[in-house]
Amino acid sequence: MNLNRTTSFQLDWLAVILFTALVVFGYFNILSASAVGEFTSYFDFSKPYGKQLIFILCSTVLIILILAVDAKFYERFASIIYLGAVVSLVGLFIAGKQINGATSWYDFGGMTLQPSEFAKFATALALAKYISDLQTNIRELKDQIRAAVLIGIPALLILLQNDAGSTLVFLSLVFVFYREGIPQYYILFGVLIAIVGIATLKFSATMVCSVMAILFLIYQLFFKRKKKTFKGTLILLIFSIGLSYGIQWAYNNVLQNHQQDRIGLWLRSEKDPEKLQAMKRNISYNLNESEKAIRSGGVFGKGFMDGTRTKGKFVPEQHTDYIFSTVGEEWGFLGSSVVVILFVLLILRILHLAEQQKSQFSRVYGYSVASILFVHFLINIGMVMGLIPTIGIPLPFFSYGGSGLWAFTILVFIFLKLDSNRLNEW
Known about the structure:
mainly alpha; disordered N terminus; globular
């Protein structure tokens, strides 16, 4: 490994500053959410905030190592990194530790490691490697299928570990396909699936299919039509009907009761007041307490380490997936807005840098980084505020944990290394 002395000065310092600001702000919120009783020391390594300091220090070492490696290393060994990630996911079925119902961790003498977090950047590298290959044309169906398989293998392995939240993140890589030129109707097709799915869960398959059939008849009777158009819309109608009934069947027969309850709460489909109160006391307890904490912060917040609901531990495990509720209570609307702005600026900066890349590999990887960060950020904050069904997914740089912080650090700084390679024209 050779460290080019000019590399550190060629980094995109705006992205580095945004990354640092998020990590530092995240640490202080973990400190506030996990400090119990009278706070005495930042270096109490028996507490989550003390351990997070160690994780941050290790992330700094990771950054140095990532920047020390030649940028071409990540492209040359993308396939090997991907295979290593897949093997680590398979190994969980043999030696994995179950936590909160998901077998997603390795236990090394008290220290846990979650390979699904690292599989995200590994898959992004493999996808970039495949799409940038001279023999790949992502506009062709066979190459689209192969790229989808690359994403689908780790996603399926993670889903089988009962970690639906991490699985969902892999779908974000569809945005990369769109940037690289897949037909626009793929996106429209995805929107149709989402609309039919939500409408089916909110109402019923019978109602949704009846409305679609009526719209089909109106279109055929009152609008100019061609034979080819008629066949296309008829196929679309048949597919939508099958999709709607399929979603309803999966909801009733595949999803567990607590998953159905979470979706029902999100869609406001439960009308029984007694059942609603019971659900709020158990299945949606975390969400209700999180919303109360955020609302209590008002505009300016209650102040650092002065959040009464945070100090009272009303939100269980608040320093992990629900860390944004600490931001809302102690820093208020203004502080929460700053966090959102920092995330948006970092994602936009990565997209801007990705568009400037001279190699397709770097561009595709940059878009993958932005997509993964965006979906994590969107789902976590939406979940904590009750806008999205409760899904176990961390907030990048904020949620407590070494695996998440290290994986996001690697994800971002591999791209910044690739970007410095562009600037230096190696």
